[in-house]
Amino acid sequence: MKGIWAPFVKVDKKRLGYIPIGYKLMLTFLVFILLLVSANFYISHSMYDASMRKQTRANIQGTLMQIRDNVAYKVDDIVQTSATIYDDRALILSIRRKESGFDIYNRMSKVITPKLESASKAVGLNLRLSVYFHNETIRESYHIWGEEDNKDFDEQTIDIYHISRIKNKFWYFTLPAERYNETMQWRQVEEDERDGRISFIRRMVNMSNPLNIEEVGVMRFSVRISELFESVDYTKLGEGSRLAVVDPYDNVVYASGSTIEQNTQNYLTIEENLPQQNWKIVAQVPLNIIEQEAERVRTVFIVICLVCVVLFAYAGFIVSHSFSKRITKIVSVLNSFREGNLHKRITYRGKGEFAQIANALNAMGEDFEALINKVYLTQLQKKEAELEMLQSQINPHFLYNTLSSINQLAKFGEMEKLQSMVVQLAQFYRLTLNSGKTMIPIAAEIDQAMAYVDIQKVKYGRRMEVSFDIDTDIWPYETVKLILQPFIENVLKHAWSGDRIHIRISVMKEGNSIVYRIIDDGLGMKAERINEIFDPRDDSHVGCGIRNIDQRVKLHYGNEYGVSIFSRVGIGTSVQIRIPARKRKLRERSED
């Protein structure tokens, strides 16, 4: 009956557990409004967010295109300058011609050097033009670029070397096969990495015989990376952005801002290709730049939504208040029924629906009260009868075994032991009877077990050793009586595996439970035997004492409590009895 009225538990106190019908109508309307507002918020916010992202991407794309054009302009300027040398047939023939004496000087001063100087000055950058000739009749003329000579000056220089200086260099012999006006490469060689520079490398070839292209030399235009990629500046995209130039192998050629990350979850990533060099410009813009504006709009929508909720809630409360008064009275009666007060009644005048409900509730309360009284008394009588039956099964069993032991002592004339056993037996039954009470203090149950152990020590002497481990926190609690002694008796009757046996008895408070443990080092049991003991369908007398105690505990406390056995053959047995930790009532303590 408790579960039927559970929804009405808190109506009278806080009106949280039950929602009156007027409020339900109001809340239904509010839910409908909230769904519309939420859908509108979601769609509007999504469209705005998509629009912001699209606009931001377009702005960043435009900025990247400007950066790309600036870089491409400088790169193309160097490429075009190299093309003036690459396509100068007169220069190529002059470089190939092998002469000596004044002719060499005349050729260098009037042809080769002027054209190289013109090419180096055609680009408005800090340019180092290095050429490597196969013709070794041409005199070398070069600078020695030490670290201290890497000055920040704006001038163009020319260095002339023989090809033998680079013939075994990795960057030279890994140049791709020559294709007319296509084979060119950007990479860091020689002193470039040290000086923060990058070189544009291109062959100088003789095309007199297209079927047999002859390499005349190699030209290398070395420029500062910072100067070449001066326009690659992350601040143009916003604070926290990242900007980098990446080669076809995903190596970073130049980076502005933080390092480009592979995890782009929190960034908007945009790429722009530099097709002539196979480079690409990669930009990563933090999404929080976009989210800042979206968060402002989201806040406005949330405020509007909350205002609507408050207004509709107030209006709904006013409208529904008139309908909820009568229903509140009915709920109050139902709540009283739930709490066990079936005497409360409700009266409504008239012939309307509320009057009919009131009459039905009054009749139902009368019927429930009569039915509960009948069922409760029946169950109580049945439970008490079962407990008395189980108790009566245990006590005679122990008394029979003890009297048998007394008989044996009398037979063999051991009068001192006999007298001690009789005294201990009287002490045991004084504790067991306990004025007919079923529930006793745990201390009394332990004293009862100790009295039984003392009885058995008279019989077994030093062959048995019993130790008690008692938690001091258990003294205020009570227990069903006579649940320890039968297990100690069971050990002494069935667990002997030699001349001696050790028994450990533990009583501990674990959380909200009291746990008894009886542990021995005897024969042990197989799992099949344990299953037989707890099998309610087993009509034999195997383990009837253990089964009775388990049933008594469950009858008193519920099926989550009871007896459990853990055993290994040849090692021993551990019995555990779990009951709830319930403190004794003050009246019982005063009687004790």
Structure characterization notes:
The protein is of the alpha+beta class and 592 residues long. It has helices spanning 21-86, 89-96, 102-121, 170-173, 192-195, 225-228, 287-338, 353-411, 415-433, 442-460, 485-494, 527-534, 544-557, 586-591; strands at 127-133, 157-162, 184-187, 197-206, 214-224, 242-246, 252-257, 267-274, 279-286, 439-441, 464-470, 478-480, 501-510, 513-520, 562-568, 572-580. Strands 2-1-5-4-3 form a 5-stranded mixed sheet. A 5-stranded mixed sheet has the order 11-13-14-16-15, covered by helices on one side. It has a 4-stranded antiparallel sheet with strand order 7-6-9-8. A hairpin with a 7-residue loop joins β4 and β5. The longest helix has 66 residues, at 21-86. It is elongated, with a radius of gyration of 51 Å.
How is the topology of this model organized?
Blueprint: H1 21-86, H2 89-96, H3 102-121, E1 127-133, E2 157-162, H4 170-173, E3 184-187, H5 192-195, E4 197-206, E5 214-224, H6 225-228, E6 242-246, E7 252-257, E8 267-274, E9 279-286, H7 287-338, H8 353-411, H9 415-433, E10 439-441, H10 442-460, E11 464-470, E12 478-480, H11 485-494, E13 501-510, E14 513-520, H12 527-534, H13 544-557, E15 562-568, E16 572-580, H14 586-591
Parallel strand pairs: 1-2, 11-13
Antiparallel strand pairs: 1-5, 3-4, 4-5, 6-7, 6-9, 8-9, 10-12, 13-14, 14-16, 15-16
